[in-house]
Amino acid sequence: MKNRTKYFAYPYIIWIIIFIALPAFLVLLYSITTKESDGITTIQFTLENFKNFFNPLYLNILWDSIYLAAVSTIICLLIGYPAAFIISNAHLSRRNTLLFLCILPMWMNMLLRTYAWMTILGNNGILNNLFSLLGLPTFNLLYTKGATVMGMVYNFLPFMILPIYTALSKMDRGLLEAADDLGADKKTVFIKVILPLSMPGVISGIIMVFMPAVSTFIIPQLLGGNKNMMIGNLVERLFIINGDWNFGSAISIVMMLIILLSMSIMNKFDIDKEGGARLW
Amino acid sequence: MKRLILIIIILVMVFVLAGCSSGDREVLNILNYDIYIDRDLLKEFENEHNVRIKYDTYSTPEEMYIKVKAGASSYDLIFSSEYMIERMIDEGMVNKLNFDNIPNYKYIDQDFKNHPYDPNNEYSVPYFWGTLGILYNKNTVDVSSNSWEILWDENHSQRIIMMDSQRDSFGAALKLLGYSMNTVDENELDEAKDLLLKQKPLVMAYITDGAPDIMVNEEANMALVWSGEAVAAMAENENLDFVIPKEGSNIWIDAMIIPSTTTNQPLAEKFINFLCSTEATLRNIDEVWYSTVHTEAIKEVDEELLNNPAFNIPQEDIDKMEMFRDPKEFIDLYTQRWTEIAVQ
Asked: Which domains are assigned to chain A?
């Protein structure tokens, strides 16, 4: 029977080959060939696509995307850690309700939720109406970088809370009691015990928020008004409108490298190699 | 043994369900702009002819071209704009039509036939026509200058909506500079690019298809829109009005074509004929609000609509309008400059 179980992995392996390995290979192939390549006989290799990317215009977009994604990730962490901490310390009956509330928005389509923010942030939106009701000046909120960050924080926050919550709730309570018995005050317990033990969750959370944030294109499109492009928008535009699949693929490859690099750096910080909340 | 039975059951179900979805009914694959047809008409055609319609949408002609050129899906019928149709005809991507199957073609106004994109009327059947102009809020915007300059007015900073469509946005800038919308002069295009870059800090958002809603909610003061969008928005908010600047604008014709990838040309022609009937045209007008190419339908349109200059576009404006042409290889320069504006 034990021998047989390995066959159960085959569907997944086939899945990986067709939907992950093959497309990734095609993207790589597009990125190193010219636009004129039309079939295997006329294929021409080039590094021109990568060279084009090192144009200040495009590097600016890359920098902008990383910056906006980093800001969103930090905000998510600042909101998500305390939230996860509160949930994990809540009474069992309330804990499930809190977790449920945290996941609930994900039941709705992301596009729909983002559209909802448009009516909240608009010039005649709910927030600005509230401001003018209170006699405050109104602001341009929608179609700004702030709105883009807002949308990303809102959409990706659960991905920060959940892994941190998992790490915190798996923590051995005995360790906290031991620290207490040995005379550590609450602050010391948190810094010396809780924080290090929750680091795997924090790392997973950062990766899970940063990755979709840096490559998103729909949020800057809807909430950023297409003014401040992110790298995902550039790739989308190159593929869908300009028809320059080669250049688009080259940018995708650069993005993949950046994500791989940041993930390996993150894993360096990962102290607990056996940690339950790690992603990989 | 149990597992074997399970596998057989699953396989049988897969085939049965697959059979349900495609059935023995003929399938018509349609690609159209967003919000550009009365969807009930699709249902009616399906029931009347016992066929199934797969309906797909796109937002700009450039996007459609890439989609069709990539060849991932084979459409039987495409709705698009004249300059992209011209390009596709040139590249042999469009089939000639059999007009015996489209008797209702006789209703199409002569004014919309024999245009340079399809000089002998062999490939396309006009669907709607319209123009490009500025939809504005009468309470906040002064349009007495009647010029494209309105879109560059610093008093309306962060209250201007531009179109995320390269030919249309460049068109407005080129006309303001006094050049042709079809320029193939790099210097002229660069001047237009500088003008659009100068405008960028004033722009609230670059949007296709969503501008009328924003204007109706009075989120923005003005927007570059196609005429039908203006008609729809003006019907919902009486503070809105439409102006076609004095420098001249674009006149466009959207038409139906059958791409060479089709597998069922007679059915596609039947559908074209169906849409060219007076009743279907009237219902489409009610849905999309663009100006009609139909000689019979125009007689039955409401008085109110006929008095709306965004629907019944005045002849003196039409005289100053220019139709987009396919700039051939020069299009790459348009695309490049537009990308440069977008990434700035």
From this structure: 74-269 (1.10.3720.10)
pLDDT tens by residue, B83-132? 999 999 999 999 999 999 999 999 999 999 999 999 999 999 999 999 99
d(CA B71, CA B89): 16
Residue-wise pLDDT tens digits, B279-317: 999 999 999 999 999 999 999 999 989 999 999 999 999
What residues of chain B, 189 to 218, have a C-beta less than 8 Å from chain A?
200, 203-207, 217-218
Q: Which residues of B touch A121 (CB under 8 A)?
A: none
- Model confidence pLDDT, tens digit, residues A82-115: 999 999 999 988 999 999 999 898 888 988 999 9
pLDDT in tens, A54-93: 988 899 999 999 999 999 999 999 999 999 999 999 998 8
Taking each continuous run of H as one helix and of E as one strand, the counts in chain A are 15, 0
User: B339 and A242: CB-CB below 8 Å?
Assistant: yes
Residue range A123-146, pLDDT digits in tens: 888 999 999 999 888 888 999 999
DSSP string over A119-170: HHHSTTSHHHHHHHHTTPPP---TTSHHHHHHHHHHHHHHHHHHHHHHHHHH
Q: How far is the alpha carbon of A57 from chain B, nearest alpha carbon, in Å?
A: 7
A237 interfacial to chain B (CB closer than 8 Å) = yes
CB contact under 8 A, B63 and A239: no
State pLDDT tens for residues B20-32.
555 678 999 999 9
**Best residue of A241, A242, A245 to probe chain B, by most B CBs closer than 10 Å:** A241
Of the candidates A57, A143, A240, the beta carbon closest to that of B63 is on A240
CA distances in angstroms from B72 to A38, A123, B65, B67, B75, listed in the order given? 15, 41, 12, 7, 10
**Nearest Cα residue in chain B from A240:** B63
Domains of chain B in start order, with CATH, are 25-129+253-306 (3.40.190.10), 130-251+312-343 (3.40.190.10)
Q: Which of A143, A237, A243 lies nearest to residue B342, judging by beta carbons?
A: A237
Give the C-alpha separation, A27 to A105, whole Å: 33
A-B C-beta contacts closer than 8 Å: 61
